[in-house]
Specification:
Elements (H helix, E strand, L loop, with lengths): L5 H13 L6 H17 L7 H10 L3 H9 L3 H19 L8 H16 L3 H23 L1 H8 L6 H14 L2 H31 L16 H10 L17
The protein binds zinc ion (2 copies).
Length: 247
């Protein structure tokens, strides 16, 4: 088992259970990994040649470039961008003679298409995040306290619910998996049913017959539906402290 992640995984499940953080524990873990990576790339790793080579090669997705700007470290960011832009310019450059121009253009299109689908930060996060989901599945198998934490989780966003189930399916025996799924689906269903009810009531509130009824829990139902569907992601911890002891 990926023991290095046992502590952060346990901490995230504990946090959503006890700190009133009504979110998906995997979103919490993702955000910590993401904050950590953004900190590293704009700080300690910024000048490392092997990191620079990878950022030049992979670039950054829109989400992560936005978050890098949000950190306000403009010089380190500009240095990374300077190097990245130079590397792209070099890669798409080629002969413009009539004999080779098609090949040059084709190469540019392929290079840019590949670049569009890769992100240095996404790939770094995914490496660890995948292991964290696996760790959670294995903790379910071995640790009764953890099973209790899972049962008391507010909800899993649908993105991560699917991945958690798939990871467990791969690792647990048939009997273990059946018990696992019964428990996690119970958690998910309670939240899902209530959310659907709240969204429906939100819609009804626009009907004059319901105008005087209290909103109840419905006022932020569309926002909660968004978080449930896509996760509560890309929330940076700007405190500068290492996120959850992760490296
Ligand atoms: Zn999530
Ligand atoms: Zn990314």
């Amino acid at each position: 088992m990926e023991r290095i992640f046992t502590i952060p995984v346990n901490e995230a499940f504990e946090a959503v259970r006890t700190e009133g953080t009504c979110t998906c524990p995997f979103c919490l873990l993702y955000n910590k990994l993401e904050s950590n990576e953004i900190d590293l790339i704009l700080g300690a790793s910024m000048m490392e040649p092997d990191v620079r080579q990878k950022t030049n090669e992979m670039g950054f997705c829109e989400e992560h470039l936005n978050l890098m700007f949000e950190m306000g470290k403009r010089l380190p960011l500009a240095l990374i961008l300077e190097s990245h832009l130079n590397s792209i310019a070099e890669k798409i450059d080629g002969s413009m003679s009539s004999l080779f121009i098609k090949k040059t253009a084709d190469n540019a299109a392929k290079t840019l298409n590949k670049l569009d689908q890769s992100c240095y930060i996404c790939s770094r996060i995914e490496n660890n995040f995948k292991s964290m989901i696996e760790t959670a599945a294995l903790l379910w198998q071995t640790d009764e306290d953890f099973r209790q934490k899972v049962r008391e989780t507010p909800y899993f966003c649908l993105k991560h619910f699917g991945r958690f189930v798939a990871a467990a399916k791969e690792r647990l025996s048939g009997r273990e998996f059946a018990e696992f799924y019964e428990n996690v689906y119970a958690v998910e269903k309670v939240y899902f049913d209530k959310l659907r009810e709240d969204v429906s009531f939100f819609c009804k509130k626009f009907d004059y017959r319901y105008a005087d009824e209290p909103w109840g829990d419905s006022k932020d139902a569309p926002e909660r539906a968004k978080k449930f569907l896509n996760g509560d992601l890309h929330i940076l911890d700007k405190s500068g402290k290492n996120a959850g002891g992760l490296t």
